[in-house]
Amino acid sequence: MGPRQDLLKTTAFFISPEKPRDIVVLITRIALLLCLFTSITLVLYVSFSNRPYPFTLFTSMNRKISSDQQQPHQPPDNAPTNISHLLFGIGGSAKTWKKRRALSSLWWDVNSTRGFFWLDKQPDDDEAVNGYDTEAGISLPYRISSREWTRFRYSSSRYAVRIARIILDSFNLEPPSVRWFVMGDDDTVFFTHNLVSVLARYDHNQMWYIGGISESVEQNVMHAYDMAFGGGGFAVSYPLAEKLVKALDGCLERYFYFYGSDQRVWACVTDIGVPLTREPGFHQFDIRGDPYGLLAAHPVAPLISFHHLDTLTPMFPNKTRLDSMKTLIEAYRVDPGRILQQTVCYDRKRKWSFVVAWGYTIQIYPWLVAAYDLHMPLQTFKTWRTWSNGPFTFNARAMPADPCQWPIVYFQDQVEEVGRSGTRTRYEFAESEKTCNRTDYERVMAVSKIIVSSMKMAPDYWQKAPHRQCCEIMDRGTIKSRSMKIRIRNCRQFETTSI
Predict the structure, then answer these.
(1) What distance in Å separates the CA atoms of residue 128 and residue 149, rounded to the nearest whole number?
(2) Which of 191, 348, 472, 480 ranks highest by number of CB atoms within 10 Å?
């Protein structure tokens, strides 16, 4: 049989098999040919496709892949940012743990706040928290920093290296659903509700470095004007943290000559190319003396943090620093977004000027003062390093030596909710060591307390363009039982705060 006859026979077999067994063989061969064709096609597709990792979709969810191929840690989530999306990394030490955790327990909610206080070594077990046997203080979560930090050189502050690596230690915990890493010190007080409302304005899928600078120009000149000062706290979005932790150890080697941990982190973030986004609610409090002037004239922004409280005069008269902070936080919890927000109104009949810093203090001037002056802090403090009268990173009014040029001051001593959406705060007259005996001052000091009513700030208030609210003197300024009433409200259309 010749080759031509063999070819015809084979072709006949595919077209018209003679036996049933031949049909099975035919089907098998066709299946094999299809498998071969599919395999060749897939190999060619993989070889010439533009997709960098064509088999990513087939990778097991439990299998770790290389960093170059790693998929985003967080699944797409369009839900609004909340407290569970924040991970705090607080720098502390075994030496300061017992003293400062009492302050930390005022703001840290063990049921909702995520993160750890990072210490240099195991602290002594002691259930007393600086005289406060509070479960919150005892239950504050802490971890011991990795000893990796000890291998880095330094020029002045060895512990700054450890504090700088807290963001790396926190990231390596691989916490789920984290959008923001928030850094601070163990003497930082965070107002977490307001911090969440601020961070919610930013796209956490982008690289953000958010914080505040020092109040003292000398500190910014010495360190940097575009650096987030660590005591006031700062926030790093997940994408930036992911890049930062890979570069951090190299940065620590390069920038060993910097003094602080925040300066080391700033230098590394700068190398990555991300600038500081400033939020005025972060307060480093690089000041000495009495913070009253700053607190009574807070910028139009939510209060986010305090620092250095143990070096400042207590916020409230006749109270310790810790009790002062407790008093302020009680008001904050009633209406978080409104705390310290300043409003100005006038009793035009008496020619009195009222300045309300909600939840903290009221000032009355027995003459009319322009709003732009009242929004400027009284300088009741000095610079951090040299105890000088400035300069500061904001304008300030000099505190007059003559008590007849001072405002009459009242401090908040009671706060309560009214229904579901209202609040009422009471402010008591504060005696001063120096008083003015003029008649116009005596008329004001006849008012012993002021009652302030307001509606709670809307949850989205700070998501909009910032705007001061207005206030008005109630009951036509009637003084009854040595008390007056003020109402804070939204400004009416075309209403201005002017003399």
Answers:
(1) 31
(2) 191
Name residues whose C-beta falls within 8 Å of residue 187's C-beta, 6 or more positions apart in sequence.
96, 100, 103, 231, 307, 308, 309, 310
Instruction: Give 297's DSSP letter.
Output: T
Under DSSP, the state recorded for 392 is B
Summary count for the chain: helices (H), strands (E): 14, 21
- Strand 361-365 relative to strand 408-418, pairing: antiparallel
Instruction: Output the six-digit token pair for 382.
Output: 């000095």
Reduced to 3 states (helix: H, G, I; strand: E, B; else coil), residue 265 is helix
Q: Give strand ranges (E) for 212-267.
A: 234-237
- Helix, strand, coil fractions of the chain, as percent rounded to 5: 35, 20, 45
HSE on the CB side for 272, CA within 13 Å?
A: 25
User: Which is more confident, 417 or 131?
Assistant: 417
Which residue, 360, 354, 325, is CA-closest to 340?
360
Give pLDDT, residue 155: 80
Please give the share of the chain, as a percent, with pLDDT higher than 90. 76
> Any idea which residue has 């997709």 for tokens?
51
**What pTM, to 2 d.p., does this model score?**
0.82
- CA-to-CA distance for 209 and 282, rounded, in angstroms? 13
> Comparing C-alpha atoms, which of 92, 99, 88, 101 is closest to residue 138?
101
Q: How far apart are CA 406 and CA 434, in angstroms?
A: 10
**103: helix, coil or strand?**
helix
